[in-house]
């Protein structure tokens, strides 16, 4: 989880949230941004392509491809829905990998970012633990690997506080040694919105850009640095207390309806100031008291386990042709 | 954890919060309520005695004794502070048990309420796991038990959703069979306030009164029902998202200062309506969207472990005369 | 796990092991014991009915019905095999419950014996955690329970060392209060044989008879005491080091073939003394040095998790008519 | 854990076991091997220096320094003893590091080998989790690091089966990038003897030499490869079933006393054949049936946690001058 406490702003880790903020609610096309939305069975798929610098400026995200799955009911624990999400996620991953020009047999290194011992930050390591790993067979007995499998390795590099080494340094070292042709990094994110927590999966080909908060030593896991495509899979698992408050004030405005005068009466200036200013105020209120905690739903253990399982299952099916939705359970723990 | 979703109101599980709300900020004495506050080394101890029905009405809590430890810096992970809290908690527990007239050798049944598998609700089971249990020695070889130990047994009864049986039914059955002379029940609570989460320990002799939300079959773990004193130890480990929002609006009022007109300008009616009405509004805003999540700090794994250790260590020292602050580590896992 | 260290003998917890020892290798029928063996797809099912006292004497087991599943390859982690075992276990449980005359809608209390925190002893609690529990719905809204479900409750009572209360006392208290019509207790066992560890499931209607080692206070979970049928599901998860040695010496005899003189030459008296005497010798050798450890395979975490899942899945399908092999995944975590 | 199933022989991972086997019970000095034994308070310290090739041949270990702590009662859970072991381990580590010529401020990389999810193999990752890590402070704000601390980083590289990458490849990559001056690797070992399991800690400056079983790609974590000293800390946490049997037969010989004729009568040729031949026989007996399991004591969860804590505490005190036995608890989780 990459929480940059010093530099927090309305910036969000989710492209669809940036898109909403850019659109300010109106869903007009943004120049330089291709957008495609599909909905099936309670799963909303948004594919964004931020094509040029103008689009990037407009939407506040770097150029690249973004696919987001939103599944508002994912926290309800319906195993049928989980299977469907896993299936669709696998399909989207396959398309995504093809679309960004990675060959079907490219060697993949999966990186599970985060901390085993902090439940809302354990998504990456949990996914890695459930992947079907094959690189050792390709290394030791390449002739005997069945067709339909590609070379997959994985690492859970830990976090700076427990290793003393930046995750990106560790990944770079290993990538230099093992020469994968694609990196897929999984990370837990902070969300702007309570409802997105543990209900949203974002895939992007922009890699991981850690905050610049603690100096330029931190370099990230990106194509620019490593020379190979880096796909980031992110799931919001936490949010700031200030985010909840600010988010609720925004929702209160909607709740109160279109009569501006009435809203003004009830909410005063909170109705009219910009979201940025309002968040500033909320943070001022909360921070001096040490209140701007990062929080997670109380059912976090179960939610993280479920999503880790969805992502591992989906990746196993997406990465190995021989693994299909019907037999994937046999490959995923 | 006893979360009564249907019947939620401004009601809080913490007596000091009720006292603050009753006092509306002014710390005048409340008739029928004795109060004693002490502060040492970053630990604030509040002893409340709600002596009569008038006091109970005024403060909104049933008659009884309440001791609260507030340790604002407990989440910072300072092991020296944790040791001090453990020591003071042991001393307060000893005094409390004596004060409510329980004999020094009374047989104790400790009840760890909550769910192993839901981290913010696992406090009770975790404490039980670290207690020094002696009943089996008293039963099987009473002559050989060293002086300085009393008969202690413990149970973690699980939660309704995984057992199908009310915790209080389980505790009643076992108490009828094993005939303890004192019950001490440990439970995770919901707080009105983010800052109280995992920084506050409340001890009360009023037992556990589960909400009446799901029918009169639920009876509670109380002296009235069991005929023996029931001490409840509670630690807030979660709060509602709506609580965070409402709490922040209250803090915003303080933050904006004493100029009512200015506050009114910024916050509109949110400044003037009652806390109860405001909460109602916040809940209206959040609930239709399924937003009124219960949240916990992201570091919940570590926080719960630390507090469980403090409480288990303190109970071991308080319940067995032979266990002292100096040797307690040898008894507590 | 019920390990009676004082009273250990060649006695085993598995009826098929008793049967083998009684038969001394020859599979002739034993008077008073009905036997039926079936094998399918790598799963061997043995149904024993010890019908009278003579049979019980002969085989060294109390009268009752015993069904054993032996799955030698269960430790290999094949999820297809696990699914088949789960399915067959469900079918056998249904037949077993019917056969012992329990009505299809009888209220069931499932008891998960053992200790959460000792992996090879955590089978019972793990199964309980994954059951579909319904009693609360029958209690609170009996009109709204769909057909096809029966009333199931469950408890993991802990172990004497951490509660100070015998598991059987806890179960008795709860059974008196909640009045189930059938008890199903799950327990980890000690095996005489390494190969049986985590590859064998035994179902018996004789309840749980804890050793008499620590006094007559320990009474067991049996029909005699509780007045209702008590089914015990047992899985060997550990064995004594002395068992391994003795077992190997027995295997060495077979390995060395039929030439007694040769066996005598190689193994000396170890070839000719009775198994009981030999075990006595092995224990003498190991015990003074504190060597008679109880051991478990190093992959115990995975093995226990897999078997707990098989049993929970099977029980969910066996106990609720509406749960079938096809939809059981949706009901079992 | 490095278990080389194909190539198993009487070879053991513990130098003191090699020494015993070389000495065949007689404790005469071995040329080329310096030996120093000390005993205090139930802790036996053996310091071996295998000085030349002749000594290495004789004892069957590579040249280097070996320190072994044997604490037969460590499994009894006495926290006072654990503290003493931790203290002595810290002192021995400090001496060892000095003795092999590493400067007091040398940058250290600690490597926790093994698998998080396999309890008897989780020692390395558990130790790493409890270390005091400082490299990030030296990197980001070198001026502000208090005196008395050195630069320590750590990594738990996972195991080949879950990463697809040899641990040694991962460590080499990271060492090349971060340039430590000393590597300390912690690993769980297989023992020749049940009594050594979880009661023995070995420190050696020979690094980690993984078996050559799966090809020459596996290179090890050694001074030859990395150009810096590599200390290995090993604890036996498992043994083979065949080891238990063979070990017991050896003990049976001692148990039966000095009368060879009597031993011969009871044990036949098992008394006279060489240990190597006997083990071969035992393995023949066990292996065809898939019996040569690797086992661990049933209390493995607790034993591993205790030893991990001892080692982490000891390393924190040994590596940072500012951390002393009195304040170490504040630094070790």
Automatic annotation (TrEMBL), chains A, B, C, D:
Catalytic activity: Endopeptidase action with P4 Glu or Asp, P1 preferably Glu > Asp, P1' hydrophobic and P2' Ala
Post-translational modification: Autoproteolytically processed. The inactive tetrameric zymogen termed p46 autoprocesses to a smaller form termed p41, which is active only during spore germination.
GO molecular function: hydrolase activity
Keywords for this protein: Hydrolase, Protease, Zymogen
Coiled-coil blocks: none
Propeptide: 1-13
EC number: 3.4.24.78
Family in the record: Belongs to the peptidase A25 family.
NCBIfam families xref list: GPR
Function: Initiates the rapid degradation of small, acid-soluble proteins during spore germination.
Record's subunit section: Homotetramer.
Protein name from the UniProt record: Germination protease
Species: Paenibacillus enshidis
């Amino acid at each position: 989880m990459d929480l940059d406490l010093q530099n927090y702003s309305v910036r969000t880790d989710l492209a669809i949230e940036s898109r909403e903020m850019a659109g300010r609610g109106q869903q007009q096309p943004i120049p330089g941004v291709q957008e495609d939305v599909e909905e099936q069975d309670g799963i909303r798929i948004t594919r964004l392509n931020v094509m040029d610098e103008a689009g990037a400026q407009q939407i506040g995200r770097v150029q690249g491809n973004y696919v987001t799955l939103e599944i508002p009911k994912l926290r309800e624990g319906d195993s049928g829905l989980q299977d469907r999400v896993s299936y669709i996620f696998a399909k989207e991953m396959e398309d995504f990998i093809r679309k960004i020009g990675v060959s079907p047999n490219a060697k993949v290194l999966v990186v599970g970012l985060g901390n085993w011992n902090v439940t809302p930050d354990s998504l990456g390591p949990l996914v890695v633990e459930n992947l079907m790993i094959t690189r050792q067979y390709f290394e030791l007995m390449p002739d005997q690997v069945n067709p339909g499998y590609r070379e997959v390795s994985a690492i859970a590099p830990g976090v700076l506080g427990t290793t003393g080494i930046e995750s990106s340094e560790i990944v770079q070292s290993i990538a230099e040694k093992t020469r994968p042709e694609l990196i897929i990094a999984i990370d837990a994110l902070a969300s702007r919105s309570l409802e997105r927590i543990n209900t949203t999966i974002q895939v992007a080909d922009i890699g991981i850009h850690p905050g610049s908060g603690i100096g330029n030593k931190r370099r990230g896991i990106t194509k620019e640095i490593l020379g190979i495509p880096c796909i980031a899979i992110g799931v919001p698992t936490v949010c700031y207390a200030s985010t909840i408050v600010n988010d609720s004030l925004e929702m209160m405005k909607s709740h109160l309806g279109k009569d501006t005068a009435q809203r003004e009466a009830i909410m005063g200036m909170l109705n009219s100031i910009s979201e940025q200013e309002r968040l500033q105020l909320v943070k001022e209120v909360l921070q001096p008291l040490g209140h701007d905690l990062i929080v997670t739903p109380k059912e976090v253990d179960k939610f993280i386990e479920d999503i880790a399982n969805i992502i591992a299952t989906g990746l196993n099916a997406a990465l190995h042709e021989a693994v299909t939705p019907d037999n994937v359970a046999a490959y995923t723990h």
